[in-house]
What does this fold into?
Amino acid sequence: MTDRTWSVAEAKAKFSELLDRAETDGPQQVTRNGKPAAVVVSPSAWAKKAATQESLADFLDRSPLRGSGVEFERMRGKMRDFEF
It folds into this structure.
């Protein structure tokens, strides 16, 4: 077992230690037959990762340019040709 990698057998035998290390040392990887099978993370790390991302509209609404008076002008005229 490396610092943060556990085989399934080790994870089963030392489940409490696995949970403690996920809380103190960060995500812990569990492998099956030498291949990644799962990652155990603390509840706080999971909540942070799973938090709802803000929408693009919310991001733009918080922009420091909002209300700054900056104006963008759309170019008028024929659209350029392109191929797919």
About this structure: The two ends are 51 Å apart (CA to CA). The first helix runs from residue 8 to 13. Strands lie at 5-7, 28-32, 35-40.
